[in-house]
Amino acid sequence: MSLQLSNVILHQLTKSESDELSVNFRSEALANDSSSENLVAELHRVFNSKGGKGFGSFSSDSEFQIWLQELRQGNQDFYTFSQNSANRLKEELAKYPFADEGTLVIAEYQALATDYLFVAIIPSNQSLKVTEGLEISATDYLDISKMDIAARIDLSSFETDKDSNRYLTYIKGRVGRKVADFFLDFLQAEVGLDTKQQNQVLMQAVDDFCSDAKMEKDDVNNYKKQVFEYCNEQIKSGDEVYVRELSGELPPADDGTSFLDYTQEQGYELEESFPGDRTTVRKLTKYVGSGGGLSINFDSLLLGERIFYDPETDTLTIKGTPPNLKDQLTRNR
Q1: Last residue of a domain, one of 149, 170, 191
Q2: Which of 13, 3, 8 has its CA nearest to residue 122?
Q3: Could you give the 3-state DSSP secondary structure of residue 123?
Q4: Predicted confidence band at 191 (pLDDT cuts at 50, 70, 90)?
Q5: Which domain holds residue 24?
Q6: Which pLDDT score is estimated for 1?
Q7: Is-contact 149 173, C-beta < 8 A?
Q8: Comparing 67-71, 109-113, 127-131, 199-203, which segment has the lowest mean pLDDT?
Q9: What is the mean pLDDT of residues 90-110?
Q10: How high does pLDDT run on average in the chain?
Q11: DSSP string covering 199-217, please?
Q12: Quick one: CA dihedral 21, 25, 30, 35, positive or negative?
């Protein structure tokens, strides 16, 4: 991936024996060489691959936003900006019980013609290496794959569209750690685009379009399969779901109404584009459910063919048990 690095620096967050958090500042920014470029490129790649991301924008009184604007306008140098950010990050992180040591990375760069600012706390790990004298020694390394405290600001969008609710992207983190809350507090940002909700609205619009168009069952299945294939390809490639583009790949209703026209006429509150959610999109072609020790997953095409549901008795009947399951049932009855 083509990446043009402007600035990158590392600061160390450390804990004392009394669990007091402090920052060990690096004396200057890293040199813009192949090593630092490779580091930022890997951070960018891993961040893109992470699921469970949230979107937002700065609140009107965000001090971090002011520092960032001063940096971009040349009124604050990158090193001062990194110190201010590190101190603020330490103060916010110290409020939470999950405050850990780690390496703070702040990078300003351009990728695919878009300017970004990246901020993350990277955990460290230990590994073994063999020295030239064939001795074993331990070495510390940045465990980038375990990164779950990170945010990336689309500077191009931030500077050209102040009303956007999605120029800031952050990793929501592990359940129960309130990482999202902490990072939003640090950045003084507000939750913006709800990608889960956008995907759910899209799924509802697809259901309603098929119903209002009075499609036959096979046509409904084919229609939903087309939507799934488009969304799934966008997710796999790291691209967003574009409603207009999706509509262009779908057949219109008998009266000529396109899917895009339908969503606009019926008032579905869909953004022009948004990241696809794999779990939500999967429900277009599959029925999935679990609970009470039972987990069921089957293609929607099978409902009414090999799988039948009776809502009065709340009974699911399966005809033609999968061979491996049948073998287990036979052996253990």
Answers
A1: 191
A2: 13
A3: coil
A4: confident
A5: 3-191
A6: 56
A7: yes
A8: 127-131
A9: 83
A10: 85
A11: HHHHHHHHHHHHHHTT--H
A12: negative
Average pLDDT over residues 4-20: 86
Closest CA to 104 of 35, 183, 175, 1: 183
Asked if residue 222 and residue 151 are part of one domain, the reply reads no
- Tokens, residue 235: 């997710």
Residues 255 and 139 in one domain: no
pLDDT number for residue 176: 47
The alpha carbon dihedral of 220, 221, 222, 225 has a sign of positive
Mapped onto helix, strand or coil, the DSSP state of residue 59 is coil
Is residue 158 domain-shared with residue 219, that is, in the same domain? Answer: no
**Residue pair 51/195 in contact by the 8 Å Cβ criterion:** no
Query: Do residue 137 and residue 203 come from a single domain?
Result: no
Residue written as tokens 């590190």? 86
The tokens for 48 are: 């893109």
Asked if 23 and 159 sit in the same domain, the reply is: yes
Residue type, 39: L
Measured distance CA(41)–CA(20) in Å, rounded = 32
* Amino acid at the residue 26: R
Residue 101: what pLDDT? 79
Position 269 scores a pLDDT of 85
Report the distance separating Cα 284 and Cα 221, nearest Å. 8
Helix (H) or strand (E) holding 291: strand 286-291
Task: Give the pLDDT band of residue 185 (cuts 50, 70, 90).
Answer: confident
Find, among 198, 298, 202, 299, the residue nearest to 246 by Cα. 202
Please identify which residue in the block is written with the tokens 């969503």.
Answer: 263
Average pLDDT, stretch 263-270? 89
Q: Are residues 150 and 64 in the same domain?
A: yes
Judgement on whether residues 229 and 320 belong to the same structural domain of the protein: no
Percentage of the chain modeled with pLDDT above 70: 93
The residue out of 264, 282, 300 marking a domain boundary is 282
Co-location of 168 and 297 in the same domain: no
Phi, psi of 266 (to 5 degrees): -90, 0
- Structural domains in the chain (count): 3
